[in-house]
Automatic annotation (TrEMBL):
Residues 147-164 have a biased composition (Basic and acidic residues). Residues 49-331 form the Beta-lactamase-related domain. Transmembrane segments: none annotated. InterPro entries: Beta-lactam-related (IPR001466), Beta-lactam/transpept-like (IPR012338), Diverse_Enzym_Activities (IPR050789). This is Serine hydrolase.
Amino acid sequence: MSQAFDDAIQFALAHEVPWPRDPAVDPARWGVHHEDPPPYNRLRGPVHARGGVSGVVWRAGQELASWGEPERADLTFSVAKSYLALLAGVAHGRGLLPDPDEPVGQRLSGIGFDSAHNRTITWTHLLAQTSEWQGECFGLPDHVEHHRQVAHDPKPPAGRKGEPRGLQPPGSYWEYNDVRINQLSLALLHLFRQPLAQVFQEAILEPLGGGTDWRWAPYDDAWVEIDGRRMPSVPGGSHWGGGVSIGARDQARIGQLVLDQGRFGGRELVPASWIARMSQPGTIAPFYGWLLWLNRDGRLFAAASPQSVFMVGAGGHYVWVDPAHQAVVVVRWIDPARVHGFVNRVAKALDSA
């Protein structure tokens, strides 16, 4: 069966992202922080050398193909945003976050949701990237990400990256903003009152049979005290360093959990209703759900089924969950400019498999 994917695999291997494998060798060509205005265009957390292009294809929970080093724990950048959405679902299942439309500050005071502008921000706003949260999170102001353009955002640029713009009411404007994602992570830390890496390991990775070699690193200065304990507040990506380092097979396990509506081995790890909501289009940004990229109109990837959802990270990281084919596809370190060719080839193989 793996031969059916040989064309896609060879295509991926031939189109590695043009970043150095070791960020220390040529730091000016590694990462996305260089696009930020100074003094924010620097790393604030640890990074490490990476492997080459790797990935897996699963169907109905069975591995059909693999390439590269699928067990290697590599940085995965904004794929970690989807992990925060899953953690919010765990909190919902435990009764810690009963209503996602509840203002965050109603349950958590003193962590950045008390101002007149921020007090109406809900969990839904944060998960949908429509919060318009204003402030600083561990020294990074929200406006560093104003006017940010990412590959799958159809909105044309309206200003220079990092140039402050007038804020809209919470829930009325979509913007891909890593500072606000880090603020969501901080809020989840205060909900769980234990490190998010520990919650993710115990609630998701261990039950799935994974989590033996992974880590979720904070920025060097992103630590808070809760209940007398010093805890890291982890970022939802590796924009400024830190973030999740994980293997492709563990990423496939997580993708399979989304495909299976939050259930594994007869257990509900994340409520099915929460998984379903993650995959629903927002009214302002119908191409986006709750920290998932959607493909409802085929605009994201024309060859993928409209039911497909994607976890996407800078540096060429994609987790493709395709209910139409009962498939999960992970590819790491592919050149984003060539990923459509990979998706086309995998889609063709899935159709014929």
